[in-house]
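Hello again,

I reread your note about wanting to compare the complex against the isolated chains. To keep things tidy I'm splitting this into two emails, and this first one only covers the full assembly. Below are the input lines as submitted, including protein chains and any nucleic acid or small-molecule components. They are followed by the predicted structure of everything together. The single-chain runs will come separately.
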Amino acid sequence: MFRFAIKMLFGDSAKFYGILLGLGFASLLIAQQASIFVGLMSRTFAFIGEVGHVDLWVFDPTQSYVDEPKPLRSTALSRVRGVTGVAWAAPMYKGLLVATLPDGSRKVCDVVGIDDDTLAGAPAEVVAGSIADLRMPDAVMVEVGSSQQQLRFPADLAPGAVPAPGQVFDPKGPTRAVEIGDIIELNERRARVVGLVKCAETFVAAPTVYTVYSRAVTYAPPSRRVMSTVLVGANEGVAPDALAARIEEETGLAAMQPWDYSMRTLGYWMRETGIPINFGIAIALGFFVGIAIAGQMFYNFTLDNLRYFGAFKAMGASSRLLLGMVALQALVAGVLGLGLGLGAVSAFGLNAAGGKLAFKMLWQIPLIAAGAVLVICVLASMISMWKVVRLDPADVFKGA
Amino acid sequence: MTVNAQAATNLAIRLRKVEKTFGKGESAVRALRGVDLDVPAGELTMLVGPSGCGKTTLISILAGLLSRDRGELEVFGQDLNALRRDRLSAWRRDNVGFIFQQFNLVPQLSVAENVSVPLVLKGESVGAAVKRADELLATLGLEGRGRSAPLKLSGGQQQRVAIARALIHEPRLLVCDEPTSALDAELGRRVMSLIRDRSHQQDRAVIVVTHDDRIFHLADRIAYMDDGLVRTVETHDRSSSETNSDARPGGHST
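Full-complex prediction:
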């Protein structure tokens, strides 16, 4: 009879596709919105993940997230270095500065200054050039993603060339991506592109520019406090969490392992912005749309077949068997609808990979979507099952 | 006026003072008010009467689809009220075949699959049940139509499919609700002949609810119902087509 139940489901093609569409749409909305949410929120702490081989981040204790400008005194570096268990400590500058392009246009850039000596804090992936080239005069490296899209040079200006005095570029003329040798100005100071790096997209959609710390602070507006954070490596055998506690105790600064700092940053954006609520509403909408469309369709499907279930019941099918048939129909529709939705989301994700759109499908997201579809199917089939259980087999004699 | 003596000694169904009421209080409807009826095995019994007289309620009770409120009922010696719901379902599955007025053929299943349902419900594999369905369909003039969709058949063919479904598991009791109402006279006669052929076995009984007086002559016994009671029972001798009407007022003869 279960085989017949499946044939009954597939045979009513209009309702079957309607159910699939509803469940597919629900799982699509739930999984896609959840993936975009995760992708977007991951960007809030993506910069922390970019900095490899660091045991601890030391920063102002009132700083809520990695991009918040709460600079430290330069003495913080030596105080951290003085804590027992610290193998090395490197300064880092991170701040938004204005870049001026040859055509006179201006862009706000996210400038990262890494330790001159160790180059600790450098991005892992270098696309062109060498990180060591940052030690060259005026050297900067730009991120190939957002930077190349936003730091556009006039197409008729050769890489490395300087505009002739009085040369004017058409702001609406053709442009090209930034290349090695190009010159930009950061806070009216010369910066020469010596390489291209690849980084994860961050929440701040400004072009990312890397340079060494000593040069970054010359680009930054003069201030007694310019150092954004101190990167720390622990001595071998020293537990990072114990070292963090020691640094906090001895310096009064906050010290966190990369994951904890990421979660602190994430927590800020989750608490202080409406992003989770907005996405939560979209996800809930997907769930309720799924219930409305698929639930209604499935219920109508059962209602349409109620006379046949009644006939089966009259012929001796037990209520348990009929419930099993309805449950199987709901399960099959759910699995197919979920597959359809997740397939569409995966295709969407593959298409969005490497683009500006934030998209990150964790393994938990398909499970959440599956759970939501399961709930939709259970709710829909429970209403249908109620009709089947209450079905009086004698009704089959009452005609259509 | 002859009573089938052999059948009379072998009752398939015995009802005494059977009552059924739907609803409660002022809205209560007494569908059956104390029905007495004997249905001998090996006969085709027709239930006739005006709409609302209790025919549908009566066949529902006979077939184990409804429980009676009062009175006695035995179907092939079984008191159906004594069976629990799951046992009653199993009893229907094993003993009753249904032919519904609206056929109730599942449109998404093939003709043979529709016919095979009672066997599948009894635990037979779909493949074996469909094979037997094909064989039975062939005997009913539907050879080669097993893979067709029911809705692609004519009304008469659909009715024969419904008959095949009702007979495939060789039930002892065949319950037919207006089996000829959707058919023209010739088809109706042929369908009833098929049903009648199945009734004349000593361990079987056929109950037909009908308004169609064109088929009355095919009955072995006609129970006239009115206002929740069986008012008159006529018996027909198969060989002579004579009738035997009881002495109650309102009796009919054919």
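For quick reference: The CA atoms of residues 30 and 284 of chain A lie 8 Å apart.

B.
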